[in-house]
From TrEMBL:
Top-level taxonomy: Bacteria, Candidatus Desantisiibacteriota
Protein name in the entry: PorV/PorQ family protein
Organism: Candidatus Desantisbacteria bacterium CG2_30_40_21
Length: 301
């Protein structure tokens, strides 16, 4: 077993016992995505894309591991991790894994109460560039899918379920002036799902756009902004109204990230710092009445 595989195995052994979470795809994975307002379906350029849009997995060139912790506006906490492993076997492409943990609480009469429920979600995803036979099309095409398993433990019962997300990512070959890359992401959430107790997990549809700008901006003396990303998502969960998410990310002097976004009207802010193989990110969503925030660490090798 080489050093990389030992690293990977060791980190998984540490993280897997703590995986538990809520509600299929009702949360944001990653402090970076929180800072961008959750507009990530059309970006898909880090390990968390196994959760957001599995089609983006094959955009990754290296092994990536992300671990994050957050506090929600209702004072519930979440733990999450995601992993991506480029492969040359099992149909090629890139494989991903994610898991989440959330304290399930509710607020009644301004009092926070535990509902006595712990929910665990684990997802296994795969994505691949579909190059063969599509060379003459005006866009690059990536496809992916994620199988999700959910277990909800209440005081008197345990419910289990499963669902599949199907993702697609288009990359137009003719891009607009001033842009380096354009992506269009589409995800069908919980396309195939089983019942949890008396109900099935809600399905949903996401459409996302991502633009990487081919421009460097200089602010004052010694401050350079580049790798500018603009993103927008339209999210339509089953039985709910349309949600609009907007986000942006800029790299400052090749080390510091600055982010801003809006999630259905709530302002989000974020920052991050990159050093060698490591990246540390922080994001906050200014929900009413209290904010939600996440911090995460990413290792790339």
């Amino acid at each position: 077993m080489n050093i990389k595989k030992r690293w990977l195995l060791g980190i998984l052994i540490v993280l897997l016992p703590s995986i538990s979470m809520a509600n299929f795809l009702d949360l944001e994975i990653g402090a970076r995505q929180t800072g961008m307002g959750g507009a990530f379906v059309g970006i898909g350029d880090d390990a968390s894309t196994v959760y957001w849009n599995p089609a983006g997995l094959d955009e990754l060139k290296s092994v990536e591991i992300i671990y994050g912790y957050g506090r929600r506006h209702n004072k519930g906490s979440i733990n999450c991790f995601s992993l991506a492993q480029p492969a040359t076997f099992l149909a090629g492409g890139t494989w991903g894994l994610f898991g989440l943990q959330e304290d399930v609480v509710e607020i009644k009469d301004d009092t926070i109460r535990r509902k006595g429920t712990d929910e665990t979600t684990i997802g296994l995803g795969w994505g691949k560039k579909m190059n063969g036979g599509f060379e003459n099309m005006p866009f690059g095409l990536l496809l992916g899918a994620t199988l999700k398993l959910l277990k909800a433990e209440e005081k008197d019962a345990t419910n289990r379920g499963a669902a599949i997300d199907i993702g697609l990512l288009l990359k137009p070959k003719e891009i607009l002036p001033g842009t380096k890359e354009i992506k269009i992401g589409v995800v069908l959430r919980n396309a195939l799902r089983t019942k949890m107790s008396e109900k099935k997990p809600a399905s949903g549809f996401n459409l996302g756009f991502g633009i990487l700008m081919d421009k460097k901006i200089t602010l004052g003396k010694g401050i350079n902004l580049n790798n500018i990303i603009l993103s927008a998502d339209a999210d339509h969960p089953e039985g709910e109204s349309l949600r609009i998410r907007l986000g942006t990310e800029m790299l400052v002097n090749q080390k510091l990230f600055w982010r801003m976004g809006t999630n259905n009207g709530d302002l989000s802010l974020g920052t991050g710092i990159k050093s060698g193989q490591w990246q540390i990110d922080y994001g906050i969503s200014l929900n009413s009445p209290k904010p939600s925030q996440q911090i995460s660490a990413m290792l790339t090798y």
